[in-house]
Design a protein that fits this description.
2% strand; mainly alpha
């Protein structure tokens, strides 16, 4: 059984940002930016935000779903990143480094909300105005139902599942972003998949979006 609500579908949900992949600095350009960040050059901090904001927002949206406080979470990621930028090395990729920080922030947010027993989704009228591709009401409702099911998983399982199935990451990439071993990712993903599909079968909206032997 596979889930049609994959990375290709996730950007189309009515209440999620239509986030494009950023033009991430690579090669010598990336090394120069890393060196400037270590030296705490003001221009480098601004360039990091401009070049990677969309990337960070994408990671957060994939893991957490639509959020009214997305801008606050993005700011938190960059504040943390700049605080530890002096530890960057020439071999550190800025994308994976920022992605791992974004996942860390997302994990903290999931655990905080679980502790306070808040509802995972805000009422529709409280959601932020975001640019979105045209999505049918069925897809929008199915995505909302999917994240409601995902919210019942542990923070680590939620991260593994969303990065793998909604963001289309390889197992190796999930391992890097979640800062854990490949074996740990596989174990978390297997547990998350079993729980998700078991619960999704009972949901009228989700069940229609799951392929069964097709």
């Amino acid at each position: 059984m596979t889930l049609i609500l994959s990375a290709a579908t996730a950007p189309s949900m009515a209440h999620a940002s239509a986030i494009v992949e950023p033009l991430i600095a690579t090669g010598h350009e990336g090394e120069a930016l890393s060196a400037a960040l270590r030296a705490r050059k003001p221009w480098a901090e601004r360039e990091l935000l401009v070049d990677y904001r969309a990337y960070v927002a994408r990671v957060l949206c994939r893991v957490l779903g639509a959020r009214a406080d997305l801008d606050d979470l993005i700011q938190d990621v960059f504040v943390r990143a700049l605080e530890c930028a002096h530890r960057l090395t020439d071999t550190d990729g800025l994308g994976p480094w920022l992605g791992a920080i974004a996942v860390f922030v997302a994990r903290e947010e999931i655990r905080r909300r679980k502790r306070r027993a808040w509802l995972f989704f805000l009422p529709e009228e409280e959601l932020p105005e975001v640019q979105a591709t045209s999505a049918s009401p069925e897809i929008s409702r199915a995505m909302k139902a999917a994240y409601e099911v995902i919210a019942t998983l542990s923070a680590d399982e939620q991260i593994a599942f969303t990065l793998r199935h909604f963001d289309g990451r390889t197992l190796e990439e999930v391992s890097v972003l979640a800062e854990c071993s490949l074996a740990t990712v596989k174990r978390r993903l297997l547990k998350a998949e079993r729980a998700f599909f078991d619960r999704a079968r009972a949901d009228a909206w989700l069940s229609s979006w799951m392929e069964e032997g097709r």
